[in-house]
Amino acid sequence: AYVLLSSFATEFMSTRVWGHITVGLLLGLGQFVTTFAITMAYVSYANRRLDPLSAARAATTRPRPTTGCR
What dihedral do alpha carbons 7, 10, 16, 22 form, nearest 10°? Predict the structure, then answer.
């Protein structure tokens, strides 16, 4: 959405909010914030739900025989 807005709604994106701060700048910085928030949420989910499942699965599988080729 940000790319489309910056391409087709340039007047809206260049609207000043406070001083030299524009709507486009706030939306661009907001992308960084949401990216970090989504990443932190996924890491938390993976640590709580996926890692225990993975560890349980790994404990029930047989190790592969080594073949000498690396």
Answer: 10
Q: Which residue has the tokens 């706030």?
A: 26
Alpha-carbon distance of 67 to 14, in angstroms, equals 63
Taking the chain (70 residues) in runs of 10, the rounded mean pLDDT of each run is 91 95 96 97 95 88 73
For residue 17, what are the CA distances in angstroms to 5, 30, 39, 46, 63? 16, 14, 28, 38, 60
Using the structure block, give the residue that is written with the tokens 């909010």. 17
DSSP lists the bridge partners of residue 33 as none
Q: What's the CA gap between 23 and 15, in Å, rounded?
A: 6
Who contacts 6 (Cβ-Cβ below 8 Å, separation ≥6)?
Answer: 13, 24
pLDDT of residue 14: 95
